[in-house]
Amino acid sequence: MQNLNLTRRFAMLGAAASLGGCSALSSINAAATPLDTYDLTPAAGSTSGRRSGRTLLVARPDAPASIATDRIMVKPGAAAITYLPDARWADELPAVVQSLLIRSIAGTGRMGYVGPSEGGPVPDLALLTRVDAFQIDVAGEAVSARIDISLTLLRDADQRVLKTRVFRNQVAAASDEPGAIVAAFQALLDTLLPEMANWVAAS
User: Fold this and answer.
1) Which of 99, 131, 172, 185 has the lowest tally of Cβ within 10 angstroms?
2) C-alpha neighbours within 13 Å on the C-beta side of residue 156
3) Could you tell me where the DSSP H helices lie in the chain?
């Protein structure tokens, strides 16, 4: 199957959108076009290690407006932002990341309760998350997925910061097709989520 270079693809989209009389109609048509929806799966950390009955609530992650959407962000250049035209996430990205963290940490079986901050018991610990990058980078013919997430663990009783760490990585996608790009994101998460879960569970 012949792959289209992402840079060329987005350049063509930008040119089409810039046609004065057609821009409004193009926007309406784009909004009405159904997009393929992709989900990501959790990856639990180690089930060995000290266990406790402590409760952990995971807050909805903070993210820039360009990331806090259900669209898959593309960076074709240092200052340019666009979105993969053929695909979307199953939910807005902060909600997706929150769910992945909850399920990955709970999957270790090393904490008494792990859930969202929107509900649940009074927590012993709270996890704050900032998503600085969750995007496709394009450099010539190369396409790669990049994730950059900061975690901060708080003691809920006095809001004391216990520890903070940045988790980041980047991996090349096999092609610029949506399925290959999502697979690259999943490969990153299969490495990063267990590291995050182990880091939290070992606190």
Assistant:
1) 172
2) 14
3) 6-17, 23-32, 93-106, 178-201
- Give, as one character, the DSSP assignment of residue 59: P
Write down the residue that tokens 């063509």 correspond to. 12
CATH fold, domain 6-201, is: Rossmann fold (3.40.50)
C-alpha 84, offset from chain centre: 14
Extents of the domains making up the chain: 6-201
pLDDT per residue as tens, the chain (203 positions): 333 344 444 443 333 333 344 444 344 445 556 789 999 999 998 888 788 889 999 999 999 999 999 999 999 887 889 999 989 999 999 999 999 999 999 999 999 999 999 877 889 999 999 999 999 999 888 999 999 999 999 999 999 999 999 999 999 999 999 999 999 999 999 999 999 999 999 87
Kindly list the distances between the CA atom of residue 2 and the CA atoms of 138, 175, 176, in Å, as whole numbers in the listed order.
Answer: 18, 10, 10
Distance CA 30, CA 85 (A): 9
**Using the 8-state DSSP alphabet, how is residue 47 labeled?**
S
- The token pair at 107 is 């999957």
- For residues 37 and 73, is the Cβ–Cβ distance under 8 A? no
Compute the C-alpha angle 63/129/156, nearest 5°.
135
Q: Are 137 and 75 in contact (CB under 8 A)?
A: yes
The DSSP symbol for 107 reads: T
The model carries a pTM of 0.83
